[in-house]
Amino acid sequence: MAKLAEIRENASHYLTQPVVRLLTRTAITPNALTWLGFLISLGAAALIITGHLFAAGFVVLVAGLFDMLDGALARHISRTTRFGAILDSTLDRITEAVLLLSILVLYAREPSTIGIILVGIALPGSLLVSYIRARAEAAGLECKVGLFTRAERVIILALGLLLSQMGYALLIALGIIALFSFFTAGQRLLYVWRQVRTD
């Protein structure tokens, strides 16, 4: 799992560096990118609620790119701050909640009982993955491991939205997010336990 985290970091680096080099020539700050990504995500939520799911999937991917760029830019220009990290993490959690709640509104209007249930499982599961990492790092422990982190959740949700016209794609995406979020939470708890079991 530690190797998987390294692969993610390398992939993120190669994807973001060309754009980061362009951004360094502008006056835009990492925190501004964080807020911009958040606002784009709110736009995606509005599209979901109004039933424009394909467009929402595309917008979710764009917001996910901004989510990678803010940290990459901060590291590139040596402007990483504790507040910036907390702001980024906070808005990430709000974004996930807002997107899933917008899907809940969509399924409540249809109505779709299975859709409502899957959102109800996926929402706490996705937040739990990030919470465990935050608590571990607050205790001075490293916890970047896990099969299904935020990046994977964003990609699967976007794919579910983009393919939503093909039957049950969005329901399948929510099921994957729900299942693997709790699986990843278990992985992280086990990883933390292995670090502290000699205490």
Short description:
The chain is mainly α and 199 residues long. The chain has helices at 2-23, 30-49, 53-76, 82-109, 113-138, 150-162, 169-196. Helix content is 81%, strand content 0%.
Order of helices and strands: HHHHHHH
- Average pLDDT, all residues: 87
Instruction: Give the strand tally.
Output: 0
What does the radius of gyration come to? 17 Å
- Helix-strand category: mainly alpha
- For this structure, what is the CATH homologous superfamily? CDP-alcohol phosphotransferase transmembrane (TM) domain
Helix % is over 70%
Look up the CATH topology.
Four Helix Bundle (Hemerythrin (Met), subunit A)
Corresponding CATH architecture: Up-down Bundle
Q: What would your notes on this structure say?
A:
By secondary structure, the protein is mainly alpha-helical. The chain has one domain: CDP-alcohol phosphotransferase transmembrane (TM) domain (Four Helix Bundle (Hemerythrin (Met), subunit A)), CATH 1.20.120. Helix content is 81%, strand content 0%. It contains 7 helices and no strands. Helix 2 packs parallel to helix 4, helix 5 runs parallel beside helix 7 and helix 6 runs antiparallel to helix 7. The chain is globular, with a radius of gyration of 17 Å.
Key structural traits:
199 residues; 7 helices; mainly alpha; Four Helix Bundle (Hemerythrin (Met), subunit A)
